[in-house]
Amino acid sequence: xxxxxxxxxxxxxxxxxxxxxxxxxxxxxxxxxxxxxxxxxxxxxxxxxxxxxxxxxxxxxxxxxxxxxxxx
Length: 72
Description:
Elements: H1 17-44, H2 47-68
């Protein structure tokens, strides 16, 4: 990332605001994919898919909550 001469990067978004939005979009997509896989796991009675789907959903929601309250 390039900055103007003498300009320091924003400490809240050291990489860029675009990167922050991409991570948020990735977490939202992970929740949707996790829900779809959870439904498929329930229908197919596949335990490992259910467990991994629940973990994906929980961790994605936890990231969004942490990001929302400013921990990330």
